Amino acid sequence: MRDVSTTLPRLRTDAAANRAKILDTAREIFSTEGLDVPMSEIARRAGLGVATLYRRFPTKEDLVAAAFAEQMTECAGLLDTALADPDPWHAFCQVVEEVCAMQAKDRGFSKAFVTAFPHASEFRALRERAERGLAELVRRAQAAGMLRRDFHPSDLTLLLQANSGIHAGTPEATADASRRFVAYLLQAFRAGNTAPLPRPVAVPLEAALS
């Protein structure tokens, strides 16, 4: 007769190992190839059956949210730290620089960050918290007279759209090119550049990598 007391822990161990394998594989694929890779391909590269993947993650949305939950929490923490910074301009610049650096390094996470996930409640809550934080950083930097008055929060979406198109041959070169590009833009964003801009366009955040 099968010993259920030993079978159940083994099943739980196998399930945990499979989940970890799926998430590790998904993170690697999403980082280098984006979010459009089929679930069947992720299962194949993880060495598991498609049915096993769908038991753990019934939808692509579930998988993406789980794969990037840790990074999303780190991003929210970055914003919390910036909002506690007594220097509004330094806080604004630091967040822009670090978010763009993350985008240049891991395009999968940056796409996940700007994608709306209506059913992944925890991930959606972190994303909404990040949006509120970004808007507050903009408000504080403008109130301090450091950020040009005609800067609009949706301009950050335009920045991410532009930054996502930077490819310089190697990951290191791409990171360096992104850093230089962002430095140029931060100089343009600073108050004192008085030439007027065209009116802002309300670009939704999820459009950044469309």
UniProtKB/TrEMBL annotation:
Alphabetized UniProt keyword annotations: DNA-binding, Transcription, Transcription regulation
DNA-binding region: 38-57
One of the Pfam families matching this protein, by short name: TetR_C_43
The HTH tetR-type domain, residue ranges: 16-75
GO molecular function: DNA-binding transcription factor activity; transcription cis-regulatory region binding
Keyword Transcription appears in the UniProt entry: yes
Family matches, as InterPro entries: Homeodomain-like_sf, HTH-type_TetR-like_transc_reg, HTH_TetR, Tet_transcr_reg_TetR-rel_C_sf, TetR_SbtR-like_C
Signal peptide (UniProt feature, chain positions): none
PANTHER family named in the record: HTH-TYPE TRANSCRIPTIONAL REGULATOR BETI, HTH-TYPE TRANSCRIPTIONAL REGULATOR RUTR
Protein name: Transcriptional regulator, TetR family
Source organism (scientific name): Kibdelosporangium aridum
